[in-house]
């Protein structure tokens, strides 16, 4: 590529200067070009260091000086280029802005007014021809400019921070939140109980100016964090996501805001109990790193197909192994037969559906691959000693059902 031609045409198009530097930011005047045909004067070292910033080669870095003139730094594998100064015809909120108190005529005297679209296209053209990874106009703007909404958010943040300090308002401590989430992740019911007894030393954040919406949003955020902690603790994501969705729907449905905190506290306990149960069931398992990959794939297949009828032959066929071999391997590592493991996981899901959903018994039977509601009921009664209705009436957190 004729880089000299690229530099000359870009400088002429933008009516500006393009300075070239070595990777260690040593100015190369003999390789630099001015639209006026003169050798560009060097810039102060501290200004050069600022304009190049801590950039990498992934995107040009646009900077402004005193919010007035604009420079663009471009890094390649071989050299650094500094394009500018220019003045843009529009007001652009640039993230990288250098304020100079002294006279900055050295930087601005050769800054011509430049059409914004021409500026963008020229910078993209220059960079993309030298880079092995082309970028788009959106990439350039998102990396370098502050959007209106982002700026408004930062203004609100500054205002809120000042207001909170004036009123001596502090958020609830992070270490308390960490202990709570850690207790759920580890299924540690005793630790969770201790954390729940702790008196809060701060206040909840403000997510909305509307009090009703604020309490609901805080509750939704809490339940979301709780469900993710349970996933980290080993709870299957699909189960955790479904439960989280159910709690969020309940949060939106509740008319009395005083019921939100007990609901969230109940969610903490429920998720922690489920993780605890899971860890108890897997207490004798070997560490995942020692688990045979075929067993892990088998369990993943089971989790994602719990809604249907699952057979050993079907899974063995999917994994391209003999069913007898898979059966023996599974029992060796899990300490339980393939069939019993499937029924065990279905039982967990049945309990969740009875507790957190409005699905009818027929729907649950169909969803989980049972031949009929009677088949489901018999299996559940033999496993728990309770009928479907008895279990739902005792543990349900949903008010009305279609059965």
From TrEMBL:
Highest taxon of the source?
Answer: Bacteria
For this UniProt record, the keywords arranged alphabetically read as follows: DNA-binding, Transcription, Transcription regulation
All copies of the HTH araC/xylS-type domain together span: 296-394
Among Pfam families, the record links this protein to: HTH_18
Q: Which SMART domains match?
A: HTH_ARAC
Keyword Transcription regulation: yes or no? yes
Q: What is this protein called?
A: AraC-type DNA-binding protein
